[in-house]
């Protein structure tokens, strides 16, 4: 089996000579000293690249997947030390709402939370989570379109994502989940990471999920769900989704069919529901930011 140095060196020669075949032939004829020199040249090139100046203006985004590696590096150097790992799901949500309900909500809330913190970025949303047994489908897995992960798979993914972020210099890794089935896995992983890490902290924020959206809508806006449609949906979640994209709750189709209501509350006109969703998002953001800051302060005491 080839050593790591041999593989890396071969790759470098391949990039230099243009073909893997030529590189393989070249490295076979090299002495140990020549291979060491080539490896040193490769490492020097990488080290120079890692500290090279960013040639263009940075994008104004808090999503790591939208940024270049240079933009992430420069944000870290400027004090962005927190990364948010958000977990959603792909599951049945009744006849009107897209299976990615939780992921659409997180598109809005994670960005809002990161910008409010001021020193945070959002990792890509973990869109696949435990949704029930697979081989003998249970829970949401009984409905077409649902995708489930085994609990151990979910926790392994969270561990790897968090560990990747820590390796690049993030000091605080925050877990938030938009679905109830995600909570225990995030809590388990955060605890395990804090046992293992000495130079970073993991934070599980259950209040993001348990934020009391229905209570806020009733208390602050006088909106009460007077009925129960018996489907996996609510006015609060629908309003948050509509802030991001009204098509994912099939707004136009529901209006055309005379079904633009959820649990006794109308979702039309669209503009009014989106404004309500923005207020709910601001409330959820403020509560979550408060809990994140408190957790970070406690961890660094």
CATH level-1 class of the largest domain: Alpha Beta
Alpha-carbon Rg, integer:
24 Å
Write down the overall geometry: elongated
Structural class: alpha/beta
The main sheet comes to: 4 strands, parallel
- CATH superfamily label of the largest domain: Creatininase
Number of domains: 2
Strand percent estimate: 5-15%
Number of E-state strands: 6
Mean pLDDT score, rounded? 92
Uncertain runs are: 1-18
> Major sheet: order of its strands?
2-1-3-4
What is the element string, with H for helices and E for strands? Answer: HHHHEHEHEHEHHHEEH
CATH architecture of the largest domain: 3-Layer(aba) Sandwich
Oligomer: single chain
Secondary structure: helix percent = 40-55%
The number of helices is 11
Care to describe what's here?
This protein is elongated. The protein folds into two domains: 4-50; 64-299, Creatininase (Rossmann fold). With 301 residues, the chain is of the alpha/beta class. The longest helix is centred in the C-terminal third of the chain and has 30 residues, at 270-299. The protein is built from eleven helices and six strands. The termini are far apart. The strands form two sheets. The chain has a four-stranded parallel β-sheet with strand order 2-1-3-4, sandwiched between helices.
């Amino acid at each position: 089996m080839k050593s790591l140095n041999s593989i890396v060196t071969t790759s470098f020669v391949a990039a230099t000579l243009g073909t893997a075949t030529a590189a393989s032939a070249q490295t076979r004829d090299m002495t140990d000293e020549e291979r060491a020199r080539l490896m040193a040249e490769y490492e020097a090139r990488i080290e120079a690249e890692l500290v090279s100046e960013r040639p263009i203006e940075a994008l104004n985004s808090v999503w790591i997947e939208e940024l270049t590696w240079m933009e992430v590096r420069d944000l870290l150097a400027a004090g962005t030390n927190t990364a948010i790992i958000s977990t959603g799901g792909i599951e049945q949500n009744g006849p009107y709402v897209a299976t990615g309900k939780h992921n659409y909500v997180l598109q809005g809330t994670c960005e809002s939370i990161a910008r409010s913190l001021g020193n945070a970025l959002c990792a890509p949303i973990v869109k696949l989570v435990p949704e029930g047994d697979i081989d003998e489908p249970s829970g949401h897995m009984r409905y077409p379109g649902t995708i489930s992960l085994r609990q151990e798979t979910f926790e392994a993914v969270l561990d790897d994502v968090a560990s990747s972020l820590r390796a690049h210099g993030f000091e605080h890794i925050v877990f938030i989940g938009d679905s109830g089935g995600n909570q225990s896995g995030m809590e388990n992983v955060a605890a395990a990471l804090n046992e293992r890490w000495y130079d970073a902290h993991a934070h599980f924020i259950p209040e993001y999920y348990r934020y009391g959206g229905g209570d806020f809508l009733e208390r602050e806006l006088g909106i009460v769900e007077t009925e129960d449609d018996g489907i996996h949906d609510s006015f609060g979640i629908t309003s948050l989704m509509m802030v991001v994209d009204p098509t994912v709750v099939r707004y136009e189709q529901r209006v055309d069919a005379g079904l633009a209501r959820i649990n006794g509350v109308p979702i039309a006109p669209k503009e009014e529901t989106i404004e309500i969703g923005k207020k709910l998002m601001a409330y959820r953001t403020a509560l979550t930011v408060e809990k994140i800051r408190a957790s970070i302060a406690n961890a660094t005491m």
